Amino acid sequence: MTINEIQDAIIDDFSVFDDWMDKYNLLIEMGRDLPLIDPGCRTEEYLIEGCQSRVWLCPSFENGKIFFTADSDAIITRGIIALLIRVLSGRSPDEIISADLYFIDRTGLHQNLSPTRSNGLLSMVKQIRLYAIAFGTKQPPGRLNG
Questions:
Q1: Mean pLDDT of the region 28-41
Q2: Which residues pair with 42 in a beta bridge?
Q3: Which of 1, 42, 53, 94 could form a disulfide with 74 if both were Cys (CB 3.0 to 4.6 A apart)?
Q4: Active-site annotation holder among 51, 82, 88, 101
Q5: How far is CA 112 from CA 7, 57, 80, in A?
Q6: What is the model's pTM?
Q7: What three-state secondary structure class fits 9?
Q8: What is the mean pLDDT of residues 110-139?
Q9: For residue 142, what pLDDT is reported?
Q10: How many CB atoms lie within 10 A of CB 75?
Q11: Hey, which bits of 23-106 come out as E strands?
Q12: pLDDT at 133 exceeding the cut of 80
């Protein structure tokens, strides 16, 4: 599936619910379904700065594609990173960098998150894109700031 097809599927998943409490429950379920991260990735090196909760994002680069695993100590935040991984993991650096992540607005996610979670979401997207830039220029992986 393309990035846009996955985003459209996410929008459809959220459109089933009118009440934001139901949408939060969907987000929580998505977080619960997120595969466990390698314990070696739960280090400061992979911690995303700018998130109220602790969020670890661990990239790997294989055959020109970036794959992400992640974890968070907050269940809603875990659901948010699960969505981003669903859309962007397994893509080339260029696809990640140029992706228009319209599902964030069309699901109402951006508007219905607390300001701190909304800032955290932006920090997650920024870190994913920074990894894409680094892998796209063949820099070694690790904690990237910028």
A1: 93
A2: none
A3: 53
A4: 51
A5: 18, 23, 12
A6: 0.90
A7: helix
A8: 89
A9: 52
A10: 15
A11: 55-62, 65-72
A12: yes
Tens digits of residue pLDDT in 87-101: 999 999 999 999 999
Give the whole-angstrom CA distance, residue 19 versus residue 88. Answer: 27
How far CA 65 is from CA of 47, 59, 61, 101, in Å, comes to: 21, 10, 6, 18
The CA-atom distances, in angstroms, between 34 and each of 6, 43, 113, 118, 133 are 16, 18, 20, 20, 25
Average pLDDT over residues 43-68: 93
Task: Judge residue 132's burial from the number of C-beta atoms within 10 Å of its C-beta, 0-12 exposed, 13-18 middle, 19 or more buried.
Answer: buried
Q: Tell me: domain 3-136, CATH 3.90.1010.10, correct?
A: yes
Annotated active-site residue 58? The verdict is: no
* Closest C-alpha among 40, 33, 16, 114 to residue 81: 33
